[in-house]
Write a structure and sequence with these properties.
Blueprint: H1 2-16, H2 20-33, H3 39-51, H4 55-68, H5 73-85, H6 89-108
Helix pairs in contact: 1-2, 2-3, 3-4, 3-5, 4-5, 5-6
């Protein structure tokens, strides 16, 4: 468990330093450790993939973040970003609408 948490912390440091390849490696170790599913780890790895022009991988992580936390609008927004990068603009627009709806529902409570 401690090794998994260390991987996450190292990934966070690499992410903040804009060392996206290292962040991906660290977050992958955390995810593969399987101790817990973290939507924020998937989100940060998604953003890291987007920053190094790997939108298909980013889309997969955005979808995983949504599976872990279905009510999280950020997961929809990340999917939209990945879909835009893949040239799938109409699908991206749908994800933006979904994210906006989730955000509106969240703000009502």
């Amino acid at each position: 468990m401690q090794e998994s948490l260390n991987s996450k912390q190292q990934g966070d440091s690499a992410f903040r330093a804009k060392d996206f390849a290292s962040a991906i490696d660290c977050y992958t170790r955390f995810i593969n450790g399987g101790t817990m599913a973290s939507p924020t780890v998937f989100a940060r790895r998604c953003l890291s993939y987007l920053m190094i022009d790997m939108p298909q991988e980013a889309l997969g992580d955005a979808m995983q973040a949504q599976l872990v936390f279905p009510e999280w609008p950020t997961a929809s927004y990340l999917q939209a970003a990945a879909l835009f990068a893949l040239g799938m603009d109409s699908d991206a627009q749908e994800c933006l609408k979904d994210g906006t709806k989730l955000e509106a529902m969240r703000n009502k409570t």
